[in-house]
Design a protein that fits this description.
By secondary structure, the chain is of the alpha/beta class. It folds into three domains: 16-225, 2-enoyl-CoA Hydratase, Chain A, domain 1, CATH 3.90.226; 233-360, no CATH class; 375-424, Beta Barrel (OB fold (Dihydrolipoamide Acetyltransferase, E2P)). The protein contains 14 helices and 16 strands. The protein has helices spanning 2-13, 33-49, 65-76, 96-103, 132-153, 157-165, 172-177, 188-195, 224-232, 235-254, 260-276, 283-301, 307-322, 335-361; strands spanning 21-27, 53-58, 82-86, 92-94, 106-109, 114-116, 169-171, 183-184, 199-201, 207-209, 216-219, 375-378, 385-390, 393-399, 408-414, 419-424. The protein has a six-stranded parallel sheet with strand order 8-5-3-2-1-11. A hairpin with a 2-residue loop joins strand 13 and strand 14. The protein is elongated and about 120 Å long.
C-alpha cells in the first residue's frame, strides 16, 4: 500500500520535476536595455530551472555602458555557469560585447571571428566628443574594470587592457594563444563535448563540475514585446517616426477635424518617445528640432527675407544629428538618412505653414463679407436705389449718386435687409 502511494505521488510530481538543460540565446544587435533585459531574464529562467549552462551567442558591435554593466553584474552573480560564444563565422564581438564575454565563465569563438576594440567612446550633452581629461578618466575606469574581471577569470589581463586602451582587436587564434578565450569551436555541440566532465572556476572561487552530455539544448527566443522593441530601437526608424509624428500633429492643429493626420501623428510620436527610452536621447538635439519648427512659423509671419527659414533648416539638421548620443554608429541615425529627411521635412513644414497663412490672410469669398469689393453691373437706374447684378445674383442696391443702367459698380457695404451700397466704377 505504501509503495503504491509513493508511486502515485511520484507520477503526480513528475510534471513539476526540474530537469537540467542547456539554454541558448542569440544577441545579434547592439547592447542596450532590450538586449540587457533579454540576457538577464534568460539567466533568471536558467536559475529557476536549475539549468546546467547558459550559452550566449554574441554578434554585436558593442553598445551602452549602463546596459553592459547590468549584464556583467548579472553574469558574475549567476548561480548557473555562463558561456559566451562569438558566432557564427564572420561575426564580431566588439566594445561592450568584449567586456561581457570576458566576464563569462567560458569564452569561446567560432573560426573566422574577432573580438576586442573596447576603447570607450563617450559624448557630451551637446553631442560632441568628451574632452581629453574626461576621456582619460573614462578610459582608466574601463581599463581597471576589465582588468579586475579578467584577473578573476584567469584571463590575460594585458591583452584585455590593450583592447580597451589601444582599441586592439583579436582573431580567434590570437585570442586563444593569448589566453583570452578557452576554445575555438565550430558549433555549440563542440562546446558541450569539450567542457563535459570538466571543472571550471566560478567568479566567487567555487569550482563546479560540468555535466553537459545528453542534456537537452533549449533555444530561448525573444518575446514578441522584445522583438517589437528591438525593431523600434533602430535609430533611423525612431527618427522618422518622430518627424512624421510632429508633421501629423502640426497638420491636425492647423486643420482641426482632419482626424487621420492627428491620429497617425500621435501614434508615431508616442512610439518615437518609447524608442527614446531605449536609445540615449540628447534633449538639446530634440529642442533644436522643436526650435526649427518655431522658426518656420515665424518666417511666414515675419518679413526676414528667408533668414528665419535658413536658421530653421540649420537647426533641424544639427538637431537631427545630435538627437541620439550613442557611442557606436549602429545606435545613431545615418547622416545619409538624416540630411535628406531633415531637409525634405523642413521644406514640407514651410510649404504647409505658407498655405495656412495665405488661407488666413486671403479675402473672404463667402457670406456677406464675400460681397464687399466685388464688381457688378447696374440693371436699372440707381436714383438712389435700384437693382444691380453682382456675384451671379440680383441685389437691391443704393448709391450716393445717380448711376445709369448698364454702368459697372463696386460693392462698398452689405446693409441690413440684404441691401448693398455701391459706387460707380
Amino acid at each position: 500500500m505504501k509503495k503504491r502511494f509513493l508511486l502515485i505521488l511520484l507520477i503526480f510530481l513528475l510534471p513539476f520535476a526540474s530537469y537540467a538543460s542547456i539554454l541558448t540565446i542569440t544577441i545579434n544587435a547592439p547592447i542596450h536595455p532590450i538586449t540587457s533585459e533579454y540576457i538577464r531574464k534568460t539567466i533568471d529562467r536558467a536559475e529557476k530551472e536549475n539549468a546546467s549552462l547558459v550559452i550566449i551567442n554574441l554578434n554585436t558591435p558593442g553598445g551602452l555602458d549602463t546596459s553592459m554593466r547590468e549584464i556583467i553584474e548579472k553574469i558574475l552573480n549567476s548561480k548557473i555557469p555562463i558561456a559566451a560564444y562569438v558566432s557564427p563565422s564572420g561575426a564580431r564581438n566588439a566594445s561592450a560585447g568584449f567586456f561581457i564575454a570576458i566576464a563569462c565563465d567560458i569564452f569561446v569563438m567560432s573560426p573566422g571571428t574577432n573580438t576586442g576594440a573596447a576603447h570607450p567612446v563617450g559624448v557630451s550633452l551637446t553631442g560632441k566628443s568628451m574632452d581629453k581629461t574626461m576621456e582619460d578618466k573614462v578610459t582608466h575606469d574601463a581599463a581597471a574594470y576589465i582588468k579586475s574581471i579578467a584577473e578573476k577569470r584567469g584571463r590575460n589581463t594585458k591583452l584585455a587592457e590593450a583592447a580597451v586602451r589601444e582599441s586592439l582587436s583579436y582573431t580567434e587564434k590570437e585570442a586563444l594563444e593569448g589566453n583570452l578565450i578557452d576554445l575555438i569551436a565550430k558549433n555549440e555541440q563542440e562546446i558541450i563535448e569539450y567542457f563535459d566532465g570538466k571543472r571550471i572556476k566560478r567568479f566567487d572561487g567555487e569550482e563546479v563540475l560540468l555535466k553537459l552530455k545528453d542534456e537537452e539544448i533549449i533555444d530561448i527566443p525573444m518575446t514578441a514585446r522584445q522583438k517589437f522593441l528591438i525593431t523600434i530601437s533602430n535609430p533611423n526608424l525612431a527618427y522618422i517616426l518622430l518627424m512624421i509624428g510632429l508633421l501629423g500633429l502640426y497638420f491636425e492643429f492647423s486643420n482641426p477635424g482632419s482626424i487621420l493626420p492627428g491620429v497617425l501623428g500621435g501614434i508615431c510620436l508616442l512610439i518615437a518617445i518609447f524608442s527614446f527610452q531605449i536609445l540615449p536621447i540628447n534633449y538639446v538635439g530634440l529642442t533644436l528640432i522643436l526650435l526649427a519648427i518655431g522658426l518656420f512659423i515665424l518666417e511666414i509671419k515675419v518679413q526676414s527675407y528667408g533668414i528665419l527659414a535658413i536658421g530653421g533648416i540649420i537647426a533641424m539638421v544639427i538637431g537631427s544629428i545630435m538627437l541620439i548620443k550613442a557611442p557606436i554608429p549602429e545606435l545613431r541615425p545615418s547622416l545619409k538618412f538624416i540630411i535628406p529627411v531633415a531637409l525634405g521635412l523642413s521644406l514640407i513644414f514651410i510649404f504647409l505653414i505658407t498655405l495656412a497663412v495665405r488661407a488666413q490672410m486671403s479675402k473672404v469669398r463667402t457670406g456677406k463679407e464675400g460681397l464687399v469689393g466685388e464688381t457688378g453691373e447696374a440693371r436699372s437706374v440707381l436714383d438712389p436705389e435700384g437693382k444691380v447684378f453682382v456675384h451671379g445674383e440680383l441685389w437691391d442696391a443704393e448709391a450716393s449718386e445717380k448711376i445709369p443702367k448698364g454702368t459697372k459698380v463696386k460693392v462698398l457695404e452689405v446693409m441690413e435687409n440684404l441691401k448693398i451700397k455701391v459706387i460707380k466704377v
